[in-house]
């Protein structure tokens, strides 16, 4: 419902990008390899991740707060209102995060709203490949 309303208003969906500190380099390299794809989409990212994407790759990125300061929840609100088409969240599975409840809430809202979510490069490759195929309207 929200997606159609946003379409009518000229507000388009975006791809959300988040990376824990130990994974930021991996996310930057992934986006660099798929620069053409990401340059064609509206992007939203948490604090430092968004800064790095803009500084290192020259991409236009809507930046929200840092993850521990509510950024994950801010992206979750965009998911819940139909603004996010996919989430690429390069998580650090070996380090406990102080804002883990926020991370879990974000993942839950993606599940509830059927938003594809990648937490590693292999899954992110599949999502980018899937979104790169033009939709056929019958």
Automatic annotation (TrEMBL):
Claim: Transport is one of the keywords in the record: no
GO biological process terms, semicolon-separated: methylglyoxal biosynthetic process
Domain of life: Bacteria
GO molecular function: methylglyoxal synthase activity
Entry-linked SMART domains: MGS
Gene Ontology cellular-component terms listed: cytosol
SUPFAM superfamilies membership: Methylglyoxal synthase-like
EC identifiers of the protein: 4.2.3.3
Active-site residue numbers: 72
The keyword Magnesium is annotated on this UniProt entry: no
Amino acids binding substrate: 20, 24, 99
The reaction(s) this protein catalyses: dihydroxyacetone phosphate = methylglyoxal + phosphate
Domain spans labelled MGS-like: 4-138
Family matches, as Pfam families: MGS (PF02142)
Keywords on record: Lyase
Family label: Belongs to the methylglyoxal synthase family.
Biological role stated in the UniProt entry: Catalyzes the formation of methylglyoxal from dihydroxyacetone phosphate.
Designated name of the protein: Methylglyoxal synthase
Species for this entry: Calycomorphotria hydatis
